[in-house]
């Protein structure tokens, strides 16, 4: 039986023997009191959480490894470049330690926004330990199979004018224009998405894969990475507080998510270098 282990105050790990690793950088809601005290009322809502995504994927694939950050992205964003380089130059986005929420509204009390020293401390205490744990699991899985596939799990509201126009597709596949994984993984995922009745999807649209996908996805080394950004309308009752999980919606969606993971796992043996 697989057991989830809280290996530190920064992340939880469930170790399995599948070639697939599920990453959850944005489902955590823990904020240390000294940081929470600096958030304003808007920030304390933690609205930009990837609500219930670890629950959505739970049990879809036997023996899959999971690595989940338990801290909130307002503490520090585990899916951003530690050097602070923008993922999408020229487009609105949030940074390593966000100054605003996804609507462009301030999340910190006046005069309480994190400074350079705060950011350096959070890189050391949160961002680095999460990625050390994720990198260790990738290496462990690659040692077993000769290949490791990181599937990074995300969600976001389907309407956010500050970040994108119109409605976001239900499935948003990111591979940094095919750079982060073998084309067979990309195509298998896209095939399931295109066949999913009642849903729409896009490959490398507004979301092309965050720092995690781009950093670890090195197919030539046997490590492949793909990001799935789901519109929250696919599995939440409403995309507003209290962001409640909709079991009926989720169950319909889980059929397709499982199909994606099973197909990717089947491909893995053929990806060995």
UniProtKB/TrEMBL annotation:
Any one Pfam family match given in the protein's UniProt record, by short name: FGase
Keywords, in A-Z order: Plasmid
Claim: Nucleus is one of the keywords in the record: no
Signal sequence, start to end: none
Gene3D superfamilies: Zn-dependent exopeptidases
Name of this chain's protein: Formiminoglutamase
Organism of derivation: Rhizobium johnstonii (strain DSM 114642 / LMG 32736 / 3841) (Rhizobium leguminosarum bv. viciae)
Taxonomic placement: Bacteria, Pseudomonadati, Pseudomonadota, Alphaproteobacteria, Hyphomicrobiales
